[in-house]
Amino acid sequence: MSERTDVNDPNRPNQLHDIRVMVVDDHPMWRDAVARDLAAAGFDVVATAGDGPEAVRRAHAVTPDVLVLDLNLPGMPGVQVCKELVGANPALRVLVLSASGEHADVLEAVKSGATGYLLKSAGAQELIDAVRRTAVGDPVFTPGLAGLVLGEYRRLATDPLPATSDEPKAPQLTDRETEVLRLVAKGLSYKQIAERLVISHRTVQNHVQNTLGKLQLHNRVELVRYAIERGLDDA
Q: Is the pTM of this model over 0.90?
């Protein structure tokens, strides 16, 4: 088996055919159109699925880099699909593509592990750009939704996680990890953080992954919540 190119490597050629994409939607015409547009743009569309259980099975089999996911699926809700697949493979990026702009749907998707949320009213080029950005870990949202998500991070921070009697002492982060965490809490994308700190996109991602591991957190939502609880967003 040939070694797969790491789509998160900032030094790799910017070739969309290296990005493996799977499209999940219960409407065949819409699903096929999205898959066709992405393939025509140069992405490697490795699979499609029309319901939740099928999406989980196929994603485990083909290991896409990006899952373009509708929320309203028969058999299993899209948020549950996202939670299961991201839980099994934290490197998977999920871009929700939904007709719903309801705040509750957006926040539930992000909490389940989605990297971004795009409305189906988006144009083909906007979708193509969103999938490309999602592949490298940038949070991508339909205009107006990013502020909603950051606001929810802040709200969650006012409701601290329950402490346990055997909770270990908080691990020590390096100065650079703390700096990256502070910028994540302010809502900056990995690309913006890389530019601000004059480091590579991949280095930012490595710092975030190391921090998640040290803090025993699972995703960006929990990470931002942790940072805001400690006032790092105001630093």
A: no
Distance CA 46, CA 93 (A): 15
- Tell me the two tokens of residue 34: 């999205």
DSSP helix, strand, coil percent of the chain (3-state; round to 5)? 50, 10, 40
Q: Let me know if 188 is exposed, middle or buried by CB neighbors in 10 A (0-12, 13-18, 19+).
A: middle
- Element spanning 115, H or E: none
The pLDDT tens digits for 124-175 are: 999 999 999 999 888 888 877 766 665 665 555 555 555 444 444 556 788 8
Please state, in angstroms and rounded to a whole number, the distance separating the CA atoms of residues 130 and 122: 10
111: left (phi over 0), alpha (psi -120 to 50) or beta: alpha
Q: Other CB atoms closer than 10 Å to residue 124's CB: what's the count?
A: 14
More confident residue, 219 or 21: 21
CA distance 82 to 88: 10
